[in-house]
């Protein structure tokens, strides 16, 4: 699976719509401290289903919505879209939106879907919000000190079998 394009509106410091093309090969994000480099990585994790506000450096889920500055009023929603390309499914656009007081909603190619559908899409491609390929500034220590079960989950995700577990849990519930 390849990430092709990332669009953000009202997400953290990205208050105005931003549309970033992700070219093949290595992408570097450079800029001064506080310009939003980590916020971009968090937008990627968020659109792939990240459910923990703490791992997005917030206290609650709505903290990803632009909170306003002295010059600008806060926004009432945040939206991130990720265009991905995979050999199995071609191109798909995954969108997550959160509104104040209304929680998160997901779409794939404009269709309303469950969070689980988004999780499956990425789990089958061995990526996702908890992919070991995404290492945030504070996570090196977490990887080193992970409990065996957590480390196993990371390895399974890397090995591309996390999707099987999501399906098994789903089947067990039925
Ligand atoms: P560093 O080089 O220090 O790692 P960085 O480029 O990774 O910096 P980020 O941590 O991505 O920077 O961005 C931090 C900025 O984002 C801060 O200025 C912070 O105020 C702003 N920010 C975070 N959340 C919000 C929000 N909800 N609303 C408005 N601004 C936000
Ligand atoms: Mg940073």
Automatic annotation (TrEMBL):
UniProt domain comment: Contains large globular domains required for ATP hydrolysis at each terminus and a third globular domain forming a flexible hinge near the middle of the molecule. These domains are separated by coiled-coil structures.
Protein name, as recorded: Chromosome partition protein Smc
Stated role: Required for chromosome condensation and partitioning.
Organism of this sequence: Sphingomonas swuensis
Domain of life assignment: Bacteria
Quaternary assembly: Homodimer.
Cell compartment(s), UniProt: Cytoplasm
Residue sites binding ATP per the record: 32-39
Family assignment from sequence similarity: Belongs to the SMC family.
Residues of the full protein shown: 1 to 174 of 1134
